[in-house]
Structures are given as C-alpha cells and as structure tokens.
Amino acid sequence: MKKYTFHLFAILGMALFLSSCGDQNGKASSNSGLSSNNAEKVYVAPGEHDEFYAFMSGGYSGNLTVYGLPSGRMFKEIPVFSQFPTSGYGYSEETKPMLNTSFGFVPWDDAHHPDISQTNGELDGRWIFINGNNTPRIARISLSTFETEEIMEVPNSAGNHSSSFVTENTEYVVAGTRFSVPIPQRDMPINEYKGNFRGSLSFISVDPEDGHMDLKFQILMPGFNYDLSHPGRGKSHGWFFFTTYNTEEANSLLEVNASQNDKDFIAAVNWKKIEEYVANGGGTMMPAEYAHNVYDEASHTATSTLKKEVLTIDPTKVPGAVYFLPTPKSPHGVDVDPSGEYIIGNGKLSADLTIHSFDKMVAAIEAKKFDGEAYGIPILKFDDVLAGTVKSGGLGPLHTEFDGEGNAYTTFFISSEVVMWKLGTWEVIDRKPTYYSVGHLMIPGGNSRKPFGKYVVAMNKITKDRYLPTGPELEHSAQIYDISGDKMELIYDFPTHGEPHYAAGIPAELLAPKSKKIYKLSENKHPFAATGPADTEVVREGNEVHIYMSMIRSHFTPDNIEGIKVGDKVYFHVTNQEQDFDVPHGFAMIGANNSELLIMPGQTKSLVWEPKKVGVWPFYCTDFCSALHQEMQGYIRVSPAGSNTELSWSLGE
Ligand code: CUA
C-alpha cells in the first residue's frame, strides 16, 4: 500500500510538472508564474481532507457557499435568502416561513458578509451570520447542520450593507444601513433628503445558549451612507466602528455629489454605553413592522412572527456614545487589527490607507478635543487620532485582513493587487497582482483576535481570461496566496459561485468533529411525521388531503393512493426513516408548482400539490439512494371533482 501511494504521488507530481512546463508556452501561464512545488501546496489527495473551511457569500445568489482550502473544492451551497430547488428550501411547507418579510414572501436577497460566532474574540464555530442587503435581513446558520436556522428582518434600514459582524463574545450581530431613508417611512419629496433622512445602526442580541436573535436597539444616526463595519476587540471591545460616505447627503448623481468632501467619517459607537442607557430605561419605542423567522430542529419546521415595534436611540441623548473620526476619501472597509488598537480606514478614492489609534481616540475624547460636530455628534481632530498612513502606491483600497503575525493585507480594486504591510511601521513589505479587480480578501479568523495566517484568499470581481469561457457570464475567481513565508505567493486560482463579497474561514478541526450526521427519528417532533409504516395514513379534511408518508430504501409507504380529486389540495408529509449518515431520499410529484424535496435521515418535509388533471400520476425519489432507486416510485389516482372514489392507500397489494 505504501509503495502504491508513493508511485501515485510520483506520477501525479510528474503530471503537474509536465503540465506547468507545457503551459509556459501558453498565454494563461504568463500571469501565473507558478513553480511546480506550489502545486503540492494546494493538492489535497483523493480521500484526504482540506485544512480549512471557507464560507463565501453568494452575493446575488442569496446563499452561502462552502469551500475547502487550500483545494478550492466546493462542498455545499447553503440556501439562506433564496429559494433553492436542490433541497426544497423555500418550497417546502416547513421552510416557506423562513422567507417571510413585512413585504410578504421575498424569495431572494443579496448576501454579502458572513461572520462566524466568537467567544473571547476567537472563532468558536457555533454559527455563521450573513446579511441580506436588499430587503434588509440577518440570517443565522448552524455550523452543526449547515442549515439556516433563523432570519431577522431589519426595519428602518435599506441596503443592509454594513452587516453582519459580531462582537467579541457574539453579544450582538450588527446591521447598518447603506441607504438612509425617512424614519419612519413616509411620503415626502426626495430632494428634501438632507437633514431629514436618517441612517439606522441595529444591534441584534444573540442568545448564548441557542443563538436566538432579538433586535435590542437601533441607533438613529445622521442621513449618511453606512458602508461597512467591524467590532472593536481586546482593549476596544465595547466599541463598534462604521464607515460612512455621502456625508454630503446627496440624493442624486452620487458618483459626483458624494465625492465632494475631502474626508468622510468613521463612526465610533460605544455600544456598552448605549446598552447601559437602555438598561436604565433609555430610548424610544417606535412602531415598526419586521418579520422574525425561526426554524426549529426538533419539529423540522419554521415559524414566522411579525414584530410591531423597535427601540430607537437618539445618539445625541447618550453622552459618550458616538464620535466621528474624519477619514479620507469615501472610506469603504473599516478593519480592526487583532490587538484592537488600530482601526484601518480604506478610503476607496485614495491611494493611502489611514490608520486610527484607539488609544489616541480615547485620549482625545477624554481631553474633549473636538473639531465641531455633525448633527450633535462630536467630530474628533484627524491629527489627534491618526496612528499612521500606509503610502502604498496602490489605488482604490477596499478591505484589510490580518495574519496575527503583525502584518496586514489590503486589497486595491483599481490597481488589482493585494498589498502586505507592517502594523506600527506602516512599511509595505510585498505586493502581488490579482486577476482581476479584487474586492474583499479573507484570512481564516482574520476578523478576530486569533487569525490563522497561513493563506489569504483574494475574491476578484472580474475573471476575463482566467478560465475556459462559458459565454458572456463567467463565475468570479478566487485566488489563494500562501502567506506562511516572508512574502505572499500565489498558489491557486478557482472559480466561486454567485458573487462572493466577504468570506469567513475556520480550521476544519474546529467544525468537522461536531458536524451533524443524522436527525434522530425518536426526536422527530414534526406534527405530520410518520416515523414508521404503522404511522402512515391519508386523512381528508374537506378538500385538503394530508398524506402521512414514510420512505426507506427503496420504497414509499403508501405507494398507491386513490380517492384524490381535482380541486384538492394535497399535502405530502414525507418522513425519511433512514438512520444512516448520507442517505437522503428525494420526493417529486408530477405537475407540482414548486420543487422536489430532499429529506435527510430522520427528517420530515412537506410538499403541497394541487392536482389539475384527471388521471393516474406518478411520484418518485429524486436521489440515487440504492441499487433499486429506480424502483422507488408510486402512483396517485386523481378522479374528477365530485366523484365518489373512496379514499384508499396501500403498499404491496
Ligand atoms: Cu430513495 Cu432514490
């Protein structure tokens, strides 16, 4: 066996060596510049596992994708804000409530920034949060089941972009508004925006036991655009930092009108102060409408509740709660280093990076050294809070991550590169091109006190010639750089699904051991569960028919059903009786106006079908589950409306 493995590696190594030699004559490799030993760094042999999980936002897919690092292999797409026929999410009766909002059923969103829960500032691997931008929502996904468990709509918000980042002990997941709007919403002229619109920053508490979210308070800020945010950590724990742009409060042609001010602000929010204020009865309850959707693992069913009010905070009424740090030039990302001292403003129209000092900020606040105010919020003096500037020579800085070794890595969109620089001395150490136009970047744990600085992944907006063309639409590209040495080394390039914005990575050893394998049938609390053939039945209530169905390799119980009529509303409640890992079954019904169901071992899911035509109609299992998968099927007899066909069901008769 040992010998065989050795030969396999020798052959693969040779193949990789030959192919990289061959490429040197071709066009693509002129940008790649890879040496053959880089191939070994990303090669994960068949049957071997990756070292890291990477959770990448799906952007306009509305979902979250899971990849392995360094292999770049995609493991799963987790449906979050979008209906997903692959599993039946958003189509099954149990999961439809997950996509409910105060606007009704909204089966799509634009998912941007995943963030993994933390304890003491370190990744704890319990949950991952992600924001829906368009119809503002925050989702919580279990990292044991890899399923979306909860979605909270965010009222008084629009373009939920500066979200969803967690505080050091996951006390809060935070959501900021990109678009300021009238609060409360009302019919008013758009050109009266200035001074009248507000921007809300929402603090959603997370229950430390079960993760359940609750919108605790909303800070009603001046009508700027709140673009991105990050929590303080270590000494700055208790603060949250938000970038702003459009401090001009323009309502039209923002590309010109929102680029007038030389400096916009980073808003520093002392949420502990506000928490205290709220605990002492501060804040104003305001009517609002927002949905709160929770999936219960025991009943395999989601419920949606419409909430009616939200606690709002006027920041000028809470002394010491909010300050503005002037930051050039329409800053996009704001990133806090692992020590909590440095707050990096990535001014997207600037060549330099601005780094603020937390200690200097606190000293300036204590000395009350202000440079005026904006809508009652004190503005600190730029020079009083400045820690340093990175003269990068790049153009269009967007985002910064950290390796935990004293280095920072910043993406530059316009000059298409990642720049590595040193915290404290601000010197540029290395720079490497990206292919092309990089947005976010990710180091596993890079947004925590303990980064795992082995790789940095650049997420690029433009793909062009990197892969075989697939018509006008190309998947975006991600690139992995090895950062374990003194310099960055590009080692791999892989396509990513949807439009990844931010991503969150975590060592596999923190997640894999607690990944759920089955749902226990004995714990199934679904009201329509048929945990064995004895529980199966068909019940008519007027024109509603409920079929309690079970499935096991390789049949359904029952598989012949008669007495269904045109005009009925038929609910298939299907329970997968299997108790083995990785044995889902599917269920699909001809003419159903939704999708299939993919049902995990021990789980119950329901599909609604409204038969429109008389006849005998088949259903079948959609997942190749056994050698007799093709035999896993059944028939429904549909009689005319008003017919007297008896309701009956059977298996093997
Ligand atoms: Cu069950 Cu295929």
Describe the structure.
It is built from 8 helices and 45 strands. It has 653 residues and is mainly beta. It has a 10-stranded mixed beta sheet, with no helix packed on it. Helix 1 crosses helix 3. The protein binds dinuclear copper ion (CUA). The site of dinuclear copper ion has 8 residues, from loops.
The stretches of 5 or more residues where confidence is low (pLDDT under 50) are 1-31
Overall outline: globular
Order of strands across the main sheet: 6-7-8-9-17-18-13-12-11-10
What structural class do helix, strand and pairing data support? mainly beta
Major sheet size, sense and barrel closure: 10 strands, mixed
> Percent helix among the residues?
under 10%
Question: How much of the polypeptide forms β-strand, as a percent range?
Answer: 35-45%
Q: Termini separation (Å)?
A: 51 Å
Ligands in the model, by name, code or SMILES, are: dinuclear copper ion
| Rg, Cα atoms, Å | 27 Å
Rounded mean pLDDT is 94
Q: How many helix segments?
A: 8
